[in-house]
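Appendix B, Record 12. Input sequence as logged:
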Amino acid sequence: MENFDVEIAEILEVDSVNMEDHLTSFDCWDSLTILSIIALASETYHVTISASDVNGAASVGGLKSLIQTKVK
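Logged structural output:
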């Protein structure tokens, strides 16, 4: 998960992210962004997460923790 920050920043259309950043604070935050995060989790980390999982994560750090707990 060493490139997680870069990958999420790209999806969120920003130069960089902080673990404390709230996901809903990004201008591009919408259902397509959530789908992109779900696809990233599936394709890159081989885990399945739902839209409600993503929304429940709340922050970039929460999202990273969510994915890390599901990685085998």
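The chain is about 55% helix and 0% strand.
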